[in-house]
Amino acid sequence: MSKSFVNKVLLGGAVAAGAAVWAIAPRTFSDKRRNYVPAVPDVWYAHRGLHDAGSGLTAQYANESGEYVALARRMAMKAGYGSPDTPGVIAPENSLAAFAAACEAGYGIELDLQMTRDGEVVVVHDGDLMRVAGDPRRIADLTYDELTRIPLFPTDAPGACKAAPLPLALEEPPLVTTPDNAPEGYYQHVPLFADVLKVVAGRVPLIVEYKFDDNSKWDPRDVELMEKGDALLQAYSGKYVIESFNPAAVNWYKENRPEVCRGQLSWWPYGEDKPTDPVALGKEYAAGALLFDWISRPDFVAYDWKGGNSPQVKLARFMGAVPVSWTVRSRDEYAQCCDQFDRHIFEAFVPDEQ
């Protein structure tokens, strides 16, 4: 092997390493100081609020989730939602009751923004209502008025992780329609982001995630969500940071609101959640390696808790990005990742520190 070849290999490796460091680098300290950027508040963040039905409440976490569900219900009732006589779910994920419960318990909140067919900014995670309401219709195809008449977890017991399908929901095509009138009795529905901000009222800090159908695309409707969501946040006096899986959304804040603390969401693709399309999978791996951070130059990296020991997260942390874990669902998971992250998004267990 010639000396020239070895030198070329070493040079190529150095260039590749330098390019990776440049790509992963977060916002500079001087940029933060110039724009008076606040840090991510140091609290535990309740994933989609403190909820008694929804995300994370699977059999895998049953040993600890009962205590969590009981706390969610107590705190929701303390805030004026439901009562001991309420037979079903009181505080489903991403509901006003779940956010009020988190505030009563003193937890920060992580929540998700999408936009309805009539352009209202609402708080909901999935692109459709199947998991949380048994209704297969998409958020983008429904008006907010319709959403107010669709109960979350309408027939489910506390602790349910998935709503039972509505009648005709599993037909091909689905034949579910919105009722003409609101259901009787107590229920929660997908809320307006404006109403969530009124309920929280600055009592706890927020991590606000902007959600999109395709994180590799960017269209006028996506820009509309950014503009409307940010307008609501500009009128809000409480503490908040923003995040997204879509680098273009985080870049929107870099370009338009540099004074806001911004975060890049990511994960390393594995298991059944990996895309099957090779091109899409390649993009996911690149995003998981944080190679698109050059677009957003984030202040924090919100990463799947299993990836806290990865080289890219360690490097981002070394260069000044705050690592935030998602979503920790047990004391054991917290013990595995607590040294690798500075902030934590949790559900399905009650942190000992609280």
TrEMBL record:
Origin: domain of life: Bacteria
PROSITE patterns linked to this entry: GP_PDE
GO molecular function, one term: phosphoric diester hydrolase activity
Domain GP-PDE: start-end pairs: 79-354
A Gene Ontology biological process term: lipid metabolic process
InterPro entries to which the protein is assigned, alphabetical: GP_PDE_dom (IPR030395), PLC-like_Pdiesterase_TIM-brl (IPR017946)
Name assigned to this protein: Glycerophosphodiester phosphodiesterase
Organism encoding this protein: Bifidobacterium adolescentis
